[in-house]
Design brief:
Blueprint: E1 9-11, E2 25-33, H1 40-51, E3 64-67, E4 74-79, H2 81-89, E5 101-102, E6 106-110, H3 111-116, H4 125-140
Parallel strand pairs: 2-3, 2-4, 4-6
Antiparallel strand pairs: 1-2, 5-6
């Protein structure tokens, strides 16, 4: 996995149908940094499936989402750690070559996290990608504050920065549990 890349991006040339049961329609575009071994089209398909998941934001009325190639409301970029750091730093965030962020133009996903997951997350990288997208898109739909663990042994809220530690919670990649109940915790100031 490269530490740095070209700093330019390829846009997935694929579109999808709107998913979701309510809320504002948010159109998004997926871009992958040039020179990395991740297909923009495949990444866009995976992100589309994540946003349509039955335990995700769209399934519970928190927004509708549609994959587009143009006229997007926000962009989801998968970038090498150095490029992710640069994009996030432009918004005043220090991501230390490890973290993802949400910017004024959209979501920046660190390629390292996309490919490898997180050492604090008990699950495969493919499931951790659900957490990345759900967490950062949570910011996109207006959930600005992070949450903390609601108690030992409980599911971690998707808006918790789980990569920084679980504090007794169990890893969780979804905003809602299997019964459709929003997983919440105390707000972090």
């Amino acid at each position: 996995m490269p530490q740095s890349g070209a700093g330019t991006f390829t846009t997935a040339r694929t579109t999808g149908t709107a998913v979701g049961t309510g809320g504002e329609l948010r159109r998004y575009r997926v871009q992958v940094e040039d020179g990395v071994d991740v297909s923009a089209t495949e990444a866009a398909g995976e992100i589309e499936r994540i946003l349509a998941h039955p335990r995700g934001w769209a399934a519970h009325g928190r927004g509708r989402f549609q994959l587009v190639t143009e006229n997007a409301d926000f962009v989801i970029r998968i970038a090498t750690p150095d490029t992710a750091d640069r994009l996030c730093a432009a918004e005043g965030m220090n991501t230390h070559g490890e973290l993802n962020c949400e910017t004024t133009t959209g979501v920046v996903v660190n390629l390292k996290r996309w490919l490898l997951g997180s050492p604090t997350f008990a699950g495969p990288a493919s499931e951790y990608r659900h957490l990345i997208i759900n967490h950062e898109v949570g910011h996109e739909i207006g959930l600005r504050q992070h949450m903390a663990c609601p108690g030992p042994g409980r599911l971690a809220p998707v808006m918790m920065q789980q990569i920084k530690g679980l504090n007794g919670c169990r890893s969780n990649a979804y905003p809602y549990d299997e019964d459709g109940i929003y997983i919440t915790g105390p707000l972090v100031s």
